Amino acid sequence: MAGWFGKREQPRHAARIEDYAIIGDLETSALVSRDGSIDWLCWPSFASPACFASLLGTGENGFWRICPERPILEVRRRYLPDTMILKTTFVTKDGEVCITDFMPPRGKHSHVIRIVEGVSGKVAMRMDLVLRFDYGMTVPWVTRANHELHAMAGPDRVILRSECARGKAPELHGEGLSTVSTFITREGYRTCFVLTYSNSFEDLPESVAVDDALKDTQNFWTEWSAKNAYEGDYKEAVHRSLMTLKAMTYAPTGGMVAAVTTSLPEALGGERNWDYRYCWLRDTSFTLLLLMRAGYTEEALHWRGWLLRAVAGSSKQVQSVYGLAGEHRLPEWTAGWLSGYEKSKPVRMGNAAAGQFQLDVYGEVALALSRAPQVDDDVRTPSADLEASIIDHVCNIWTLPDEGIWETRGGRKHFVHSKVMAWVALDRGIKNHERYGSKGDLKRWKKNRDLLHHEICKKGFDKRLNSFTQSYGSKTIDASLLRMAMVGFLPADDPRILGTVAAVEERLLRNGLVARYNVERSPDGLKGSEGTFLACSFWLVTAYWLSGRKTEAREMFERLLKLRNDVGLLSEEYDPIAKRMLGNFPQALTHISLAHAALAISGQWKPEAGHQPG
């Protein structure tokens, strides 16, 4: 039978952000909700158009749900130890059933595999599949033969195959604009569904041996996890964060996406909705540090290789964010047919921040290059020459205002954090020059480093507030200032740093969590409010620890760990009043900051002291 028939409204709506878990194949990821629905999947890569987009719309925009037909009394979820294989157990009046969701590390094709196993009793199950290519806009042409379904539109093709360990595989039939299957599972029974992506012009992919795929996936993750050398405090949280970061890494290039989603709002119903399915330079330096301290030298080299390729060329062209393979152009547009997560519009694709001037990224690059593994000698010389070019450029541009770390859209300012990171670029560049040697005007670099340090201390510090401020001459406090001691601009016990930490506590703490800045007092070109920023909260933990407030650091860190969902994941922001996650999910910077704070608490990291001019 060919084509779709009939029409039925799909009632599916997105779950709360914290109710999702991710599975992935190191080139893309799917979000699986607690009720057994995959509501977000971009194929074939993280940045590709989604074929399941009900996360940002309704069921008409695509989802894949497998769950009991009768009411669910209880849901239990976990990842198999040391893996990204998700186990979800549903408890009903009729019995229990477990669904195992995973994506095998990518071979020629990408697969989502869902294994439904009876645990006890006799449970009636239902599968609903709504495929919509192009972010929920394009209805594919569908054909069915035996227990296979083929959906195709333009270059995209998805194949669904089903099998049963006992008896016949479940039948697939059309119901409205969806494909449905109903079946019974009981103890000892297992039903498998395999969804495969391929280009429509390729030969039909071969079927997957489910047991082999599960074994291979488990072996891959457990072998990767066994390399983790971190033995400090909060090992479980650090380990899960590292695994999450690995799952968000695009294996062909080594680039790591900031999140696997786009346009999950910073405030429900607001317009602060951004596409994070790209690679930000400011995530590089601390990511390298974490990977190296945890023993993942290969991943660190791969990530550093991505960085070198992305910023290669003219230093004038360095930007804050790049595509998965280092693409420079990420045009921003809106998907007007999507209603947005809980009616939060617009839904944005691409990111205009790629065209912004963000001075701080030069410091991030310098930090990353200074943290290069010693075994990376083959690229040491070319990277040193690249860094020299970057430092020369920083000498020319550090006097200019920029859009800053938060990528504001309210006009450029002399952001203090940006200036500090420009100083970091000069300071680390000089140290690398002295350590490894490269071409460069060392006298000029040192002069600019000291001039910039003096200017920041003079123009960026407010004596009445006893704190550094968001920008020169402002009275606004910004959480990014917490990073000043972390990058060695001043010692953590310097009175100006202690005063800044106190100002952050006084002005930015919201129910025990840290906001980035006060959006009412510091217009950023956008309407509405936002939640508290979880990375900033972990920065405060690190600031507490470095300044000797160790009990407070541990107490806050442990409060933050309790905000993780049931499988250990965190989003970008959190609403402490509504007690729910906000922003894109899972968020790399949040997990990076979590692991970095744990390193500090465990005594496995201390900031590198920068040069302090006399």
Key words describing this protein structure:
15-stranded antiparallel sheet, alpha+beta, Glycosyltransferase, single chain, Beta-galactosidase, Chain A, domain 5, disordered N terminus, 14 helices, 28 strands, 614 residues
Structural description of this entry:
- This protein has two domains: 17-202 and 213-223, putative glycoside hydrolase family protein from bacillus halodurans (Beta-galactosidase, Chain A, domain 5, Distorted Sandwich); 227-601, Alpha/alpha barrel (Glycosyltransferase), CATH 1.50.10.
- The chain is an alpha+beta fold.
- The termini are far apart.
- Residues 1-10 and 374-381 have low confidence and may be disordered.
- Strand 10 and strand 11 form a beta hairpin.
Offer a concise description of the structure:
Helix content is 30%, strand content 22%.
Number of helices: 14
Rounded mean pLDDT is 91
Q: Could you please say which CATH topology of the largest domain applies here?
A: Glycosyltransferase
Q: Name the CATH class of the largest domain.
A: Mainly Alpha
Q: Compute the gyration radius: what is it?
A: 25 Å
| Second-tier CATH architecture of the largest domain | Alpha/alpha barrel
The 3D shape can be described as: elongated
Q: Which ranges are low-confidence, i.e. pLDDT below 50, for 5 or more consecutive residues?
A: 1-10, 374-381
> How would you characterize the largest beta sheet?
15 strands, antiparallel
Number of domains: 2
Distance between the termini: 81 Å
As a percent range, the share of helical residues equals: 25-40%
Structural class: alpha+beta
- DSSP E strands, number: 28
Determine the strand fraction and express it as a percent band.
Answer: 15-25%
